[in-house]
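User: ok so my PI wants both of these folded by tonight, can you help

Assistant: No problem, let's get them done. Here's the first:
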Amino acid sequence: MKLSGCNLPGIIVMVFVMLSSSSTSAITNFNVLNFGANPTGGTDSTDGFLKAWNAACGTADSTFIYVPKGRYLVGPLAFKGQCKSSQIIIRIDGTIVAPLDYGVLGKSNNWFSFEDVSGVSIIGRGTFDAKGPSLWACKASNSNSCPSGATTLSFTNSNNIRINGLTSLNSQMFHIVINGCQNVHLEGVKIIAAGNSPNTDGIHVQLSRNVEILSTSIKTGDDCISIGPGTENLWIEQITCGPGHGISIGSLAKDLKEEGVQNVTVKKTVFSNTQNGLRIKSWARPSNGYVQGVRFIDSVMRNVQNPIMIDQNYCPRNENCPGQVSGIKINDIVYEDIRGTSSTPIAIKFDCSDKNPCTGIKLQNVNLTYLNKAAQSFCSNVVGKAIDLVRPNSCL
């Protein structure tokens, strides 16, 4: 299967070769309990986790770090790369819990941060519980003393990464961030946060290539998956989203010089009671960025406010953008086999830039209704075509 330059089987083969190669070489095991981690949840285990990582990182063999069942109180951790081991597998069967004081994590950018690593896999049925509600409540009170909050799991400038089977619960901010990475395989993950939790994007990808997100359930208060500048060859398949803000490319045009987004496939997704379904969003500001080669295929909408949406006039609170237009160039976007219900009359909205109209937009086999009756579509500065059945009637 190959679409827009994204070779899915090739990436999968690479991932499994990476994991199975250990069968021909020695594996050294490290149990966090042997480094002082405490499974009762009452004693700080941060140092034990870090010592286990340093031991694994300093070993030339393939290594296996094990977190048994139990509860582990852990503060912010940064796992640095340049390891002797070419493969580190971390199996988490326990629950990792954040300190009760939200400020301990909240003053850090990340809770678990992996930087400049290669060949790291995090697997198992364990849970990261960031205890985000107390920080969300602080933010809801409009207090100026609230910290920004931490991303639960962050990978930066890293390669050959696998995340499988974990649960991220109540992250303070983003749950998982993939930034500046290559060859990432994420599968079978559960992400859970309240629908009103602020800035709790499920998975954010930016400046990264060859990333797969498969068979994942996301319930959160912001974008289920957000796609930032510099993303190339991204494959998303079998995702359930809701509550949340849908799957969004953007927001883009935050900066004048910005890398583009290209070769993105979103396939077999279900959106339930979300703010958006499939969205492309850019600020109404000058930019040299672009979006091209995107395929949205086989999506079900269940009571979604904006099932299909391109917004190039994004300007919240009318700050730093009134009177401007987006410089982002959007081209070659396909919506195929999209069906279900909109919770608002306008089910398809293409609000594009009058300076850089959206081009190459294609709708094929789209059937969206509103309250069991016909929905509407809105088009501004968009060029494209509708093929086969398209409801609401396309304005392309």
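One down. Here's the second:
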Amino acid sequence: MNPSLISKTLFLLSLLSFALAGNFNQDFDITWGDGRAKILNNGQLLTLSLDKASGSGFQSKNQYLFGKIDMQIKLVPGNSAGTVTAYYLSSQGPTHDEIDFEFLGNLSGDPYTLHTNVFSQGKGNREQQFKLWFDPTQDFHTYSLLWNPQHIIFSVDGIPIRDFKNAESRGVAFPKNQPMRIYSSLWDAEDWATRGGLIKTDWTKAPFVASYRNFNANACVWSSGASRCGSSTTTSTTNGGASSQAWFNQELDVMSQRRLRWVQKNYMIYNYCTDFKRFPQGLPAECRMR
């Protein structure tokens, strides 16, 4: 290939990658915190902060019905005990759907707890918790949700940690009808977050700060009562076109299943599907799926 053509192609690809990375000014609204949340670097960085008076949060301008959503997050460093950084999808109302990442802070040197949950039609109680195989406060790491009609796959740096499968055939509701926004917040949960509330927030270390960058949603945008996935229009949050929607039917391949088993064997610290004391009448139906 002609060197000038290669150079031009690489330039165009770099522009495309930049466009798909999203811009916080265009894609999100700061919803609370009285100035504690900030969008910086021309929309390429967002920070949330927490002090004794208040935390802060933001939400996406768009609602989505299925998609592959990525966010790079650097969590509160140092003594983060009592703080929670929540990053999740949610609809509204008493029968809401929700897909959660929550990061529970800890004392300096102790690992964060990564808490996951799935709500469908208002019912949750599907918690799985993990320790991470790296320090999530030292650098940005990518936290991803792949949500299609058959699977909700939680991933960290491309490694799947959880696969919540559609079990409607067993009478288990699955999130597939309610569009959801992306939310994130940094808040004080010292009453329960660290060892059941035994360790309180050290406010001398405030403000606590979490940072976000490189948001990307390859997703179906909900607008005017309909979900738009196949449009030829590409925005900073939605990569349209059928060729970009392999995620819509995606499931874990053999290698990804091995990685999932590795994480769950070595880093899972709680799984509701093995908590027989919590469910004396029998585990939930989705827990009995192979």
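Helices lie at 3-20, 24-27, 254-266. The longest strand covers residues 208-223. Good luck tonight!
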